[in-house]
Amino acid sequence: MTRRILVTGVGGAPGFDLAASCRDLGNTVIAVDCDPHAPGLRMPGVEPHLTLPAADAGYRTALLRLVQECRPHAILSTVEQELGHLLALRRPLADSGVTTWLPPAAAVEACTDKAHFAHVLAVHGIPGPVTLLPDDVDQAPDGLLVVKPRSGQGSRHVHLCRSREQARVLCSLIGEAIVQEHVTGTEFTADCLVDRGGRASVILRHRLLVKGGLAVVSRTFTDAGAEACVRAVLTATGLRGACCVQGFIRGPHDEPSGSSGPGRVVITEANARIAGAFTTSVAAGADYIGEYLRGLFHHDVNHNRLTYRRDVTLTKYQATLTSTQGAPS
Question: Of 40, 114, 169, 296, which is most buried with the most CB atoms under 10 A?
Fold first, then answer.
């Protein structure tokens, strides 16, 4: 039976590539986004549909209406702001025959509230950057500071500044913001798949070139210290399914990869969704989407199929998808 999978957020890299991967594995993909100009709505071989933004009061009603119209077997969300809605809709979705694989509410809160995430790291002794709310900017360390929204994804409205005074101004402009110390080192992402029993596979890749928050050039690597920190984050947050963790490895480049000295690995964030450059892990040999779909439909995840080769580099590049005449329908 060909499965019908509804993928949300196809205007962004995670949703676009996930939709393409599900399609290429022989599934019928219902590509959904709130933006009529989302590239994934024009992907060949998918059924495109518009929906409301997650912040809209009518989001849940609109999604249930779309489900009744399209009859998907499963929903995969790549927009973290949707996850709270999906958790609330699990029962009506299940009654409509729709399978979901969602993280627990506590994990969603930890990943969508960066101040809370910093608290979770601190409670579990996982190294992270100094993180402060706007009222506590006076306690910020000297040096470069990062001001970003307390929630959100895709590096939107993230600013680098040189003083506490600049940080205060940026906080007033952003609204709900946090201030963090600026972490340097080699940036990495871990593509993770945590099965329903809590066993995790972790695939590490360096973010060699980042544009707009997306790693457009990534290279897989292995590092026992970084992997241990990632696994600690997965345990502390309770994440399940496909998710990702980001951080930095700092120190001399010749430091042994297994070293776990104090502060060598710094975790900056975790996302309760698939990452934007997960295709690097697939290129390195991991059956990441195949096993994600197995877990989605309540089959055992085969973690032996999630091993990967190190030093595999993937480069992403924007290309013209389509050219059309007239206004979008």
Answer: 40
Q: pLDDT tens per residue, the chain (329 residues)?
A: 799 999 999 999 999 999 999 999 999 999 999 999 999 999 999 999 999 999 999 999 999 999 999 999 999 999 999 999 999 999 999 999 999 999 999 999 999 999 999 999 999 999 999 999 999 999 999 989 999 998 866 567 789 999 999 999 999 888 889 999 999 999 999 999 999 999 999 999 999 999 888 899 999 999 999 999 999 999 999 999 999 999 999 875 435 455 555 689 999 999 999 999 999 999 999 999 999 999 999 999 999 999 999 999 999 988 878 888 877 66
For residues 169 and 235, state if they share a domain.
Answer: no
| Residue 167 CA to its chain's centroid (Å) | 26
CATH number of the domain bearing residue 168:
3.30.1490
List the domain range (segments joined by +) for residue 135.
Answer: 130-181
Q: Does residue 328 lie within any of the structural domains?
A: no
Residues 311, 285: contact at Cβ < 8 Å? no
Residue 148 carries which DSSP code? E
| Element containing residue 192 per DSSP (H, E) | strand 186-194
Cβ proximity of 28 and 47 under 8 Å = yes
- DSSP per residue, 112-137: H-HHHHHHHHHHTT-----EE-GGGG
The number of CA neighbours under 13 Å toward the Cβ of 253 is 2
Last residue of a domain, one of 181, 200, 220: 181
What CATH number should be reported for the domain holding residue 89?
A: 3.40.50.20
